[in-house]
Write a structure and sequence with these properties.
The complex is a heterodimer of chains A (284) and B (265). Chain A is mostly helical and 284 residues long. Chain A is built from 14 helices and no strands. The model of chain B has no long low-confidence stretch (mean pLDDT 84). Classes of the chains: A mainly alpha (284), B mainly alpha (265).
Chain lengths: 284, 265
């Protein structure tokens, strides 16, 4: 385990701790962490937490809210789009075709995310395919701005995260004991009741796992909003990027990055704890 | 009634698959478009591919990507496999169990922490340690976040490993080294290959961390593509993306064939 600690300890944990240390500093003129002369004074005056205080004051709250809402809507959309697909693959498709259908869900995973998101620019831009199509169908009279809007970010997020939803849903639907559905039918339950009272509760572990796997990367997403969102649809990730690579205020960027990390870790730990208590397998 | 529902679900699945593959297809089709204007089809042409091959900077960045991916794959596969072997150890003492659970937590960290956070942390780390940003820092960064993929995949395979095989080999007179190379390694090889492949594709595709830790003379293909995308969609991007997509798809299909062939034996 020594090599693991050398690599992950030295190149992962240590940088993370340094980032935490940087977040306690003020920025100098170049946006780097200014050295602190007197730590006692720094702590007593509350300056040590100044970046965390700044991070919840304008202009940041709308961005935090937007990230949260986008991640939440993405999760809901992926669930609505993904559940029927997982259901189809697990319970309806011919067994011989299951592997192909699953492979088709997984293949996009392996292809360049950046490129796939960039492809949406072709579709969403003013003279893009979607606008051309809508114009030809006379649904709109002039091109709508789709690119560089929160809607474009939402589309990109759903598109990118969908496989993460379908796979855990498939895993739990596949394990579903079909004799329970037959028993429910024998006892007179209608299809809707069978779904709501048998299938849905039994696949709850998959629903929760998929939602966690979509929501968390969605919250920390950077590429999608960078490529499709423009300057008015920024998410937390873009703020961190902006403060860092623009060399504006690295300590503030570090504080926001850490808040994001803590939010993500808290959610994951809560999920792992809850899943373990309910006896769900979460594959860790 | 039942078949109507099945048809509806099949249709829905079809639509979702169309959403997943539509953008990729659009990209590929338009990479052969004659016109510079992205969404109007004016005729078939290979021009953008020719232009691509002549773009010295782009070819240079592609080489960078390949070198980084190969180094990261080799290093991460070796270190990740060692990590997995350590994690799947069977020491029962409290200290061994504690070491395993803290190491497991460490291994999961790169999987769960947002990439942008890691990009910021690594940039800060490199600048504080005065590590000059170059291909080496890019490699180090890629190794740091890909080791975990190998460790997790190989460990999953080791958990299913039948310990009695190990005992049988020892009973038959194999020493520890022989046992490892002739029993354990062949069993975990498919997982190691799968892990290596994942590292390669993750590394060659990485944009977020690379854009932070690459120096001006060490940009990679995704960083170049991102800057091209931001300066306006040209058919050249479609062409380079198509090349990249076709390469990864071939890689995945070949490896799947290799692995299923291996398992079938």
């Amino acid at each position: 385990m020594l090599p693991t600690w050398l690599v992950l300890g030295g190149l992962y944990l240590l940088p993370l701790l340094i980032l935490a240390a940087v977040s306690l500093h003020q920025a100098d003129d170049f946006g780097n962490a200014a050295s602190v002369e007197n730590w006692g004074q720094h702590i007593r005056s509350g300056e040590v937490a100044a970046n965390y205080e700044k991070s919840v004051r304008p202009p940041f709250p709308p961005i935090h809210v937007r990230s949260f809402v986008l991640a939440l809507v993405t999760t809901a959309a992926c669930l609505l789009l993904g559940y029927p697909v997982a259901y189809y693959i697990a319970l309806i498709a011919a067994p011989a075709r299951k592997n192909l259908l699953l492979a088709l869900v997984v293949i996009p995973f392996w292809t360049c995310f950046l490129v796939r998101i960039a492809a949406w620019r072709l579709i969403l831009q003013d003279q893009g395919l979607l606008n051309t199509l809508l114009l030809k169908m006379h649904l709109i009279t002039e091109p709508r701005q789709l690119l560089d809007t929160p809607l474009a970010v939402l589309i990109g997020l759903v598109y990118g995260e969908l496989p993460y939803m379908i796979l855990p849903l498939y895993a739990s639907l596949e394990k579903l004991d079909r004799s329970l559905l037959e028993a429910a039918a024998d006892l007179g339950a209608r299809p809707a009741a069978r779904f709501l009272r048998v299938t849905l509760p039994l696949t709850l572990p998959g629903i929760v796992a998929g939602s966690v796997l979509v929501f968390i990367p969605g919250l920390g997403q950077f590429i999608v909003s960078d490529i499709l969102g423009g300057s008015h649809s920024m998410m937390i990730g873009n703020v961190v990027n902006d403060l860092f690579s623009g060399g504006k205020d690295k300590p503030l960027g570090a504080a926001i990055a850490l808040e994001l990390t803590i939010a993500v870790l808290t959610m994951l730990i809560a999920w792992a704890w809850y899943a373990r208590r309910r006896g769900w397998e979460i594959g860790l | 009634m039942k078949s109507a529902r099945s048809t509806l679900l099949a249709l829905h699945a079809l639509v979702v698959y169309a959403i997943l593959y539509g953008p990729i297809l659009v990209l590929m089709v338009f990479s052969f478009n004659k016109s510079r204007q992205a969404a109007v089809w004016t005729g078939f042409s290979f021009d953008w591919y020719v232009q691509l091959a002549q773009d010295a900077e782009l070819v240079h960045d592609a080489w960078h990507s390949l070198i980084v991916a190969l180094v990261a794959t080799a290093a991460s596969t070796a270190i990740g496999t060692m990590a997995a072997l350590g994690l799947a150890g069977n020491g029962r003492e409290l200290s061994a169990r504690a070491a395993r659970s803290t190491t497991t937590a460490l291994v999961y960290l790169p999987i769960v922490i947002p990439e942008i956070v890691m990009a910021a942390a690594l940039l800060t780390f490199f600048s504080i340690t005065r590590w000059h940003l170059s291909l080496v820092t890019v490699m180090a960064a890629h190794i740091s976040f890909t080791v975990s993929y190998v460790a997790i995949i190989v460990r999953a395979r080791l958990i299913g490993f039948d310990a009695s095989l190990e005992e049988a080999a020892m009973d038959l007179g194999a020493n520890r080294v022989q046992m490892f190379f002739r029993v354990k390694l062949p069993i975990i090889t498919p997982a190691i290959i799968a892990g290596a492949l994942l590292v390669f594709t993750v590394s060659i595709d990485d944009y977020v961390v690379t854009s932070f830790v690459a120096g001006t003379d060490s940009t990679t293909l995704p960083v170049k593509i991102a800057s091209m995308v931001k300066t306006g969609v040209t058919p050249e991007i479609n062409a380079v993306s198509t090349v990249l997509l076709v390469c990864t798809i071939i890689l995945v299909v070949v490896s799947q064939k290799l692995m299923t062939g291996r398992n079938a034996e």
